[in-house]
Structure formats: structure tokens, C-alpha cells
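fwd from M.: "can u put these together and see what the complex looks like"

so here's what she sent:
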Amino acid sequence: MSGDPRDEIVEHLPALRAFALSLTRNGALADDMVQDSLVKAWTKIDSYQPGTNMRAWLFTILRNTYYSNRRKAGREVADVDGVYTASLSEKPAHDGRLQMTDFHAAFAKLNDEQREALILVGASGFSYEEAAGMCGVAVGTIKSRTNRARARLAELMHLDMGEALEMTDGATLAVISGNRTASVG
Amino acid sequence: MAQDRNKAQQSQVIDENLKRVYQDMLDEKVPDRFLDLLSQLKNQQGDGNHGDTK
């Protein structure tokens, strides 16, 4: 009856797409990657150990897909249309403050490894250890990637402390999170 | 020391923004093609060794 771990895959679809999108920054490419990963996950379910973190397992498949595609394509795969980013970031202007367009632009300038580390640890809530396992590198490597990624973002966005403080005030947060309403609950 | 505090605060600001960007992506509706694909895969599996067809 129940017990096929593959039935859980569907729950991770939004996260899988979000991760694909942050790697590729290209909607069409991201969805193709998700599709490939789903087929792989389905056929290689034996390599999943029930009881372990399925999302981490799926993310690992996806990132392997991404990096092997990138190798095949000889480097420059991503950032072809930029349409997706633009559509995501139509937030009202808020003079002088950090805007999501800026953040997206800065984020896109990180290298793949830094962006990946930051998404895994900073956004998706994986531990350094989990992220290290998924990326097949040492924990210290993940730490230094996330640190460098944050430093680079801060630099790209000219984030000095004055701005940073403004960023966290209520008005700015309301602007930033403007389009998140009913769906969170 | 003040620098360390700044750095910590910076990281926090960045992570908060990151989470919002990520959340925006999570909130997107999953295209039907993926749900279709999954149900297709599930149906195919009936041809294999499982008794659970259809």
C-alpha cells in the first residue's frame, strides 16, 4: 500500500524548482533540469535511503545534473533570458534602499558554487554539514563559500551598515515582502 | 569588535533577503508538466515488477 518513497517526491517540487532556478537563473533551463532530475530520481530510487532527508537527496541529483550539463556545454549555460529575474522583482521603488532588483543582480554575479552554498545554507535551511554532503566537499569549504558569497553580495550592493539598518526596518520589510500574502500560512 | 557586529548584521540582512527571494520562488505554482510526468512515471511502473498496476 503506502511506503513507496517516490510518492513523497511531489512535496519537494516547489523547492526543487526554486533550487534549479537559483542555480540557472533561467526559467526554461531550470524546468528542463527539474524534469531530468525527476526522471533520474524515479529510476534511481534505490539509491535513496528511507528515513534520510529526501529533499537533500533530490537536490543532490539536481545539482549533479546541473554541473554535468555545465561541463558538457563548456561553461556558459546560464543567464540567457533574465526574463525570470525581471518578472520576480517588480517591487515598488523605495528610494535609496536596497531593492530586490539589485539583490537579484548581485546574486547573479556570484559564481555557481557560492550561489549554491548560499541558497542551501542561507535560504533553504540546510546545515553546513548537510550542504557539504550534498556538494561533496568539506564542511569548511561550504563555510568559506557562504562567507565569501555574503561578503561579495555586501560589496556588490554597497551594503554599509547605515543601509543595512534601514533594510531591516518595518517599512522596508513590508516593501520587500509586498507580494507574499495569503499563500503563507 | 564593532566590525564583527557589522558583519553579523550584514549577514543577517543578506540572509533575510535571500529567504524572501527563495520564498517567492517557492510560492510559484508548480507547472502541470511535472505533475503529469510524475503520474506518467507512476503508471509505467506497473509494467515492471510491481503488482500495483494502473
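replying to her w this: Chain B has one domain: 2-44.
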